[in-house]
């Protein structure tokens, strides 16, 4: 069966510091991968998605970036965090090129102070 | 892009009551999913239901694609059902991306 991991689970970082969040998927190959953010309140906003190694599409202009160095690894980064980057970051995967379910990881709660 | 609206935004029930959550969407969809976000933030897949009716225990869902809405039914609610319920859709022009509604916050009191 497939599993998705995210780390760290929680993170407190000062404004201006760098960020690296990692997501890995096990038990599948060549998945579509996604990064979402959930700010205070409820809405989930898609930040990035990837259909293959090195292929990243950005949905929202911001000071975040994403990379996919390996087939089942997805990384969210920032060079300098802003207060507005605080939130709950969720990684998700689905089978490529198919209308099947997306599955979500446990999330990383980021607080920028 | 597609619009996804969920109602009601908030719902408070006594344990044992039944409820219906609604999701309206503004365009044809390839995929529709219902999720439950638990108090720890985890998004739990409830249903993958682009059309038709499915049941899983006390929960069931119906999507009427031609009329662009989906319903989630919760029967005999329990306190563990509390949390936010999201509807999310994947539409034709989305390239396999999900668009989420704003959710329904369900509180079940003992």
Instruction: Indicate the multimeric state.
Output: heterodimer
Could you tell me the CATH topology label of chain A.
Answer: Immunoglobulin-like
CATH topology of chain B: Immunoglobulin-like
Measured by residues with Cβ under 8 Å of the partner chain's Cβ, the largest interface is: A-B, 26 and 24 residues
Shape of chain B: globular
Question: Based on helices, strands and strand pairing, what is the structural class of chain B?
Answer: mainly beta
Radius of gyration of chain A, taken over Cα atoms and rounded to an integer in Å: 13 Å
Q: Please identify, by name, the CATH architecture of chain A.
A: Sandwich
Fill in the keyword field for this structure:
heterodimer, A: about 110 residues, mainly beta, Immunoglobulin-like, four-stranded antiparallel β-sheet, globular, B: about 110 residues, six-stranded mixed β-sheet, about 0% helix
Could you explain the architecture of this structure?
The complex is a heterodimer of chains A (113) and B (110). By secondary structure, chain A is mainly beta. Helix content of chain A is 0%, strand content 58%. Chain A has one domain (3-98): Sandwich (Immunoglobulin-like). Chain A contains no helices and eleven strands. In chain A, the strands form two sheets. In chain A, strands 2, 4, 5, 6, 9, 10 and 11 form a seven-stranded mixed beta sheet that branches. Chain A is globular, with a radius of gyration of 13 Å. The mean pLDDT of chain A is 92. With 110 residues, chain B is mainly beta. Chain B has a single domain (4-109), classed as Immunoglobulin-like (Sandwich). Chain B contains no helices and eleven strands. In chain B, strands 2, 4, 5, 9, 10 and 11 form a six-stranded mixed beta sheet that branches. In chain B, strands 1-3-8-7-6 form a five-stranded antiparallel beta sheet, with no helix packed on it.
């Amino acid at each position: 069966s497939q599993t998705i991991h995210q780390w760290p689970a929680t993170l407190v970082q000062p404004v201006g510091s760098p960020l690296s969040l990692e997501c890995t998927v096990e038990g599948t190959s060549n998945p579509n991968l996604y990064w979402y953010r959930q700010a205070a309140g409820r809405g989930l906003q898609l930040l990035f998605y990837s259909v293959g190694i090195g292929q990243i599409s950005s949905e929202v202009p911001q000071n975040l970036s994403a990379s996919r160095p390996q087939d089942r690894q997805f990384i969210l980064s920032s060079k300098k965090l802003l207060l507005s980057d605080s939130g709950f970051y969720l990684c998700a995967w689905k089978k490529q090129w198919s209308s099947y379910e997306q599955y979500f990881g446990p999330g990383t709660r980021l607080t920028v102070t | 892009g597609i619009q996804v609206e969920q109602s009601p935004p908030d719902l408070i029930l006594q344990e044992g009551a039944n409820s219906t959550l609604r999701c309206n969407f503004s365009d044809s969809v390839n995929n529709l999913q219902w999720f439950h976000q638990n108090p720890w933030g985890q998004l739990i897949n409830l249903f993958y239901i682009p059309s038709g009716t499915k049941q899983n225990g006390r929960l069931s869902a119906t999507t009427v694609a031609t009329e662009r809405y989906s319903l989630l039914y919760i029967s005999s609610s329990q306190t563990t059902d509390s949390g936010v319920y999201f509807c999310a859709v994947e539409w034709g022009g989305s390239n396999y991306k999900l668009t989420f509604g704003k959710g329904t916050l369900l509180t079940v009191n003992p």
